[in-house]
Write a structure and sequence with these properties.
Blueprint lengths: L3 H7 L9 H22 L7 H8 L23 H16 L4 H14 L14 H8 L7 H11 L16 H4 L4 H12 L6 H18 L5 H26 L5 H17 L2 H8 L1 H4 L13 H12 L4 H10 L4 H16 L6 H6 L3 H15 L2
The structure holds magnesium ion.
Length: 372
């Protein structure tokens, strides 16, 4: 089997370079598509499907007129998914490299203070695994060791959405170099989530964003390539895990070795494929399997969303399913937003975003740095 780098080198993409206008439309489409999905989904995160249907029935999609499942929420505000995506982008804009310790420091500061320039007093909506990893004594020095220890202590079964929700921006930053996208997605995913499924789903979404920014318009092809790259990246990452675990305490290494067969089984390429392709072929949102907050479910929803045509119809269907609605809608919104562009997003929803000007400035700054 060709290695990941061989596969990438042999890819013969027949695409036309996007004009700066088209490129900007896609970057802004992805960032605003994420933020709108997140802000709408946050209203009914982890609410039952029945209650979600009741909440959204006969109502226009709106972030205004407040009733929300989350405490202390403000109209038009997005949640941790968008905030953490922007933390990664802001870290790259400051350093011009992807750096997990800089991101870790920003993440910890954000958890305590939020974005102070937006008047936040703390980061909201953070998942339990991410909280536990950030609180780990080794987190600031070495985020991936903190994350690995938490993963192993939880019997090596933590395929949560905390990584996939924030890594799609990495598909923008290095879009010209798919190998770099994979390395960055792995680095930033494993900064809090070591489970190969969390890492793999982050890779799949980031690579898909890059392929669209390279000008690939055929979505079937985007998904086939994303699958092939992710399958190989997960294989490499499983080998990396062996080396990584040599840096943790002996009793934790023993748990890892005991759990290794289960890790390999759950990282099986067939399961990965199931969440990338059949959901589209059958027009099904894979929301009914596993628990809420399962990273493959979020990836499946994201790729289903990518295959849809109308942004509002797609987001409504995703958030009406309940569960991890903001994260599912943020990832699906980012993918479809990248495909159709900012110009095809509903203007009324863009205007409802409380911090849209701030987001637009970040998007413009990013576009100017990465478009060549
Ligand atoms: Mg959230």
């Amino acid at each position: 089997m060709a290695s990941l780098q061989d596969y990438i080198s042999q890819l013969n993409l027949i695409t036309e370079k996007l004009t700066k206008e088209e490129f900007s439309d896609k970057i802004k489409g992805s960032l605003f598509g994420m933020a709108i999905g997140d802000a709408l989904g946050a209203r009914t995160e982890f609410v039952s499907k029945e209650k979600c249907i009741e909440f959204w029935q006969n109502k226009p999609l709106s972030m205004l007129g407040w009733e929300c499942s989350m405490p202390n929420w403000e109209e038009g505000d997005w949640s941790d998914d968008t905030d953490q995506t922007l933390l990664i982008i802001l870290s790259w804009l400051a350093l011009e490299r992807v750096d997990d310790t800089d991101f870790g420091a920003r993440l910890k500061h954000w958890l305590d203070h939020g974005f102070e320039e937006l008047g936040d007093t703390g980061g909201c909506g953070v998942g339990a695994v991410t909280q536990e990893v950030i609180s780990h004594e080794k987190f600031l020095e070495s985020p991936w060791i903190a994350a690995l220890e938490v993963f192993v202590k939880r019997n090596c079964n933590l395929a949560r959405t905390g990584a996939i929700m924030r890594t799609h921006g990495l598909g923008m930053i290095d879009y010209e170099d798919l190998g770099a996208v994979v390395r960055s997605a792995i680095l930033m995913a494993k900064a809090t989530h070591s489970d190969p499924r969390s890492v793999g789903s982050a890779v799949a979404v980031s690579v898909s964003i890059s392929l669209m920014l390279k000008g690939l318009r055929n979505i079937e092809q985007v998904l086939d390539i994303a699958y092939e790259i992710t399958r190989r990246a997960m294989e490499d990452y499983l080998n990396q895990l062996d080396t990584m675990t040599s840096s943790i305490a002996a009793e934790l290494q023993n748990i890892y070795l005991q759990q290794k067969p289960n890790i390999i089984l759950s990282s099986n390429p067939e399961i990965l494929r199931k969440y990338i392709r059949p959901s589209i072929e059958n027009d099904l949102i894979p929301l009914e399997e596993e628990g809420d907050g399962y990273t493959y479910k979020c990836m499946g929803v994201g790729f289903w969303g990518l295959s849809q045509n109308d942004y509002s119809t797609m987001i409504r269907r995703v958030i009406t399913e309940g569960g991890d609605a903001d994260t599912n809608a943020a990832v699906a919104g980012s993918l479809l937003g990248c495909r159709i562009g900012y110009s095809q997003l509903p203007q009324s929803l863009i205007l409802q975003l409380k911090h849209r000007v701030w987001l637009e400035n970040i998007a413009d700054h990013l576009i100017n740095k990465i478009y060549h």
